[in-house]
Structure formats: structure tokens, C-alpha cells
């Protein structure tokens, strides 16, 4: 008597990346926090409004041909002196405040994201080298980091911004000024990444998988980037999220002090500086709405950073 062949059992299907993300502990933690969901929604809405600003505004505030002085200092639409289509009023150049906020938010986000990216690349690279190589290289990098930590980030950014502008000339175009701001902010925030990555690398490099990679002859560069770096990404994501808010604040501070974006291509900080000149003359809307937009963006990003820090901390699970 022969045994009947067993029916083929289908192989278990591997869940997709989206399905694994939905079932993860991080997404579960995100769904449990209503405050985090509200903050994420605000960041998403502001990001989309800034991204699609040309489709949502009534004028291009960076184009002088579209500005008319006859429309200057118009109050918001719901007031007695308000006029269409200026929803949030206009400034002294006839620039629509709503349009300027969306375009200014684009610049603030671009400077913040690029500055954080530059700081992360520089800090992660130096942290990997310091932690993996050790010795005199580690001591040199960490001493430079210790010296920089004695100064506030805004002071470092002001110093770098001033030195670069003195070397290149104070009359820089908007694109060059944006690059200078990105470099200044990036050089102000790299230390946190370097110290965090260095500490993680010093722990990871003594584990068996690193010894096995060294045994099969993998070069140090491959071991650091392909094997050690992924195990340090949790703290880096938290630092990057929090530093994004700090970078936007730093850019706004530099612009408010007159060292940031010019009046012809204003960021949120520049708009606040312009509005501050007219605060006591009754044109409160010129500073109030850019300040509210900046505060909403910073607060929402900080709330996301706090949630991400708690979600990735195993001691709080």
C-alpha cells in the first residue's frame, strides 16, 4: 500500500514593507498618541502648502513685477479695511502676507533640511572614523567637538556666516546666501551626530559580527558603512528630527538679525524682522502671521522628535 502524496503547502508569503511598518511597535505607538498624530498632520499640511505654494498663492512675492505699492499695508480680509484677495493682509511693499509665508516656509524648510543633512553626513563620518579607528584620530576629533560645545550653536553659525561673507563680500545673491546659511548651520550641529555615532561604534565594533567581517577580509570602510552604521540609526533619527527644528530656528534667528536671507527673497525669519519694524505702528499682521506659522512648524516638529525619542527607547517600551 503506497502512501498518498501530500498536497503541496504554499510557502508563507513575506509581508510587504508597508504591512511590516503598520504592524511595527513604532506605528502602534504613533496611533496611541493623539498629540503626535495632530503634530504629524500639521507638519504634513504645512509641508504640502510650502511644496505646492505656486498653486495656492495669489502672487509670487519674490517677483517685483507682481508687487504694487498701492496695495501696501492692507489689513487682513476679515477687518474693515481688508481687501480681496489679500487674506492675511500685505506688507509695506504690497506683498501678500499669505503668499510670502508659503514661499518663506519653503526657504526655511530647505535651509533646515539641507543644514541637518550636511551636519549629519559630516558628523556621522567623523563619528565613524573616531569610534572605529580610535587612538590619536579619536582624540583629535573629540577635542575639536569639545571645544565647539563650549559655544552656543547660534554663535558658531554667526561666526561662520560672518567669516564667509567677509571673504566673499557682503553683497551676495540669494542663492549664495542660502548655501552660506546651510554650511553655517551644518557646521554648528555636527558635534551631536559625531559623539552619538562614536559611542555606538565603540560598542558595536567589539561584537562578533564585526570580528567575522574582519576575518573574511572586508575593508574597514565597508564594515563601518554596511554593518556598523545601520545599528546606530535609531539615535541618529531622533537627533535629526530635533535638529531640524533647531536648524529652522537658527536660520530664522540669523535672518532676524540681518545675517540671513535678503528682503527680496525672505524666509520666515526675514518676514518677522520686516514685521517687527511696523509692530508699533499698527500693522500687527505683518509679524503676527509669519511668527504663528514659524511657531506652529517648530512646535509640531519638536513634538514628533519627542515621540520618536520615546518610541525608539527600549527602556520605555
From TrEMBL:
Family listed: Belongs to the binding-protein-dependent transport system permease family.
Phylogenetic lineage: Bacteria, Pseudomonadati, Pseudomonadota, Alphaproteobacteria, Hyphomicrobiales
Cellular-component GO terms for this entry: plasma membrane
Keyword entries, A-Z: Cell membrane, Membrane, Transmembrane, Transmembrane helix, Transport
Domain annotation ABC transmembrane type-1: ranges: 105-305
UniProt-listed GO biological process terms: transmembrane transport
Annotated membrane topology: Multi-pass membrane protein
Coiled-coil residue windows: none
UniProt subcellular location: Cell membrane
Protein name (database record): ABC transporter permease
Transmembrane segments: 37-58, 109-134, 140-160, 172-191, 211-229, 236-257, 284-305
Organism from which the protein derives: Tardiphaga robiniae
Main location, first listed in the record: membrane
Amino acid at each position: 500500500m503506497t502512501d498518498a502524496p501530500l498536497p503541496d503547502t504554499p510557502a508563507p508569503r513575506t509581508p510587504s514593507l508597508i504591512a511590516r511598518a503598520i504592524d511595527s511597535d513604532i506605528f502602534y505607538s504613533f496611533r496611541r498618541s493623539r498629540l503626535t498624530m495632530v503634530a504629524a498632520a500639521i507638519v504634513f499640511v504645512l509641508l504640502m502648502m510650502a511644496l505646492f505654494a505656486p498653486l495656492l498663492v495669489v502672487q509670487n512675492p519674490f517677483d517685483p513685477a507682481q508687487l504694487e505699492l498701492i496695495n501696501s499695508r492692507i489689513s487682513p480680509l476679515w477687518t474693515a479695511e481688508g481687501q480681496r484677495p489679500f487674506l492675511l493682509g500685505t506688507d509695506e511693499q504690497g506683498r501678500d502676507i499669505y503668499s510670502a509665508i508659503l514661499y518663506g516656509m519653503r526657504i526655511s524648510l530647505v535651509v533646515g533640511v539641507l543644514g541637518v543633512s550636511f551636519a549629519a553626513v559630516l558628523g556621522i563620518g567623523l563619528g565613524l572614523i573616531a569610534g572605529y579607528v580610535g587612538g590619536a584620530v579619536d582624540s583629535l576629533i573629540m577635542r575639536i567637538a569639545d571645544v565647539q560645545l563650549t559655544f552656543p550653536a547660534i554663535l558658531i553659525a554667526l561666526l561662520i556666516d560672518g567669516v564667509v561673507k567677509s571673504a566673499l563680500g557682503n553683497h551676495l545673491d540669494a542663492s549664495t546666501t542660502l548655501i552660506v546659511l546651510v554650511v553655517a548651520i551644518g557646521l554648528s550641529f555636527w558635534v551631536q551626530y559625531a559623539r552619538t555615532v562614536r559611542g555606538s561604534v565603540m560598542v558595536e565594533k567589539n561584537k562578533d559580527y564585526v570580528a567575522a567581517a574582519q576575518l573574511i577580509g572586508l575593508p574597514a570602510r565597508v564594515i563601518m558603512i554596511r554593518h556598523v552604521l545601520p545599528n546606530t540609526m535609531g539615535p541618529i533619527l531622533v537627533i535629526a528630527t530635533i535638529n531640524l527644528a533647531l536648524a529652522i530656528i537658527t536660520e530664522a534667528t540669523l535672518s532676524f538679525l540681518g545675517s540671513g536671507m535678503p528682503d527680496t527673497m525672505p524666509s520666515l525669519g526675514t518676514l518677522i524682522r520686516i514685521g517687527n519694524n511696523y509692530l508699533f505702528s499698527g500693522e500687527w499682521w505683518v509679524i503676527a502671521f509669519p511668527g504663528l506659522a514659524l511657531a506652529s512648524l517648530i512646535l509640531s516638529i519638536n513634538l514628533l522628535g519627542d515621540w520618536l525619542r520615546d518610541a525608539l527607547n527600549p527602556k520605555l517600551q
